[in-house]
Amino acid sequence: MEANRYRIGVLLYFRSEEGRILLIRRSKRPNIGLWCAVGGKLEMESGESPFECAKREAGEEVGIELSDSDLSLRCMLSEENYEGTGHWLMFLFEVHKRLPELPENIEEGIFGFFDVEELPALEMPPLDRSILLERILDQDAADFHVLRATEGVERFPERLKVEDSVRATGRPG
After folding, report:
1. What is the pLDDT of residues 43-95, one digit of tens each?
2. Is residue 72 a part of any domain in this protein?
3. d(CA 154, CA 29)
4. Residues 66, 38: Cα–Cα separation, whole Å
5. What is the domain-level CATH number for residue 88?
6. Residue 173: inside a domain, yes or no?
7. How many domains does the chain have?
8. Rounded distance, CA 154 to CA 160, Å?
9. Could you please report the per-residue DSSP string of 36-72?
10. Strands 144-149 and 35-36
């Protein structure tokens, strides 16, 4: 892989009908053994957009069909050399369609629903936990964020730079 080339992916934050957060305990790299949002890599060769990728990943991993209106783009995150896997550009989506039950486990890992209060104690990548609690779930925070994480942000949280945060208007929900 070229050292300066970005990999592009999406993360999806689903909730149960009761409002609990869906996470997957990953059985593969990156983040093996940690609880993370559902997600995957964008298929660039087909010209797939982040919204198309989010809908595809929702079907493949969670078994649910989504429309564009079921998704709100909440954050764009660029990560420098994450876990030695190269640079990443991630699009984080909040999913408005609620899940009636826990999805079946998949090759990538096992699923679990969690109350917001349980998240700080979970084994999660620290940056994921911070973004989820402070940017995605915090209803008082601005609705869309552009973040940049330089290498080592997992050990040095001050390396997370907020490049922009804006209040979105007219969001579905």
Report:
1. 989 999 999 999 999 999 999 999 999 999 999 999 887 666 778 899 999 99
2. yes
3. 16
4. 14
5. 3.90.79.10
6. no
7. 1
8. 9
9. E-EEEE--GGGT--HHHHHHHHIIIII-----GGGEE
10. unpaired
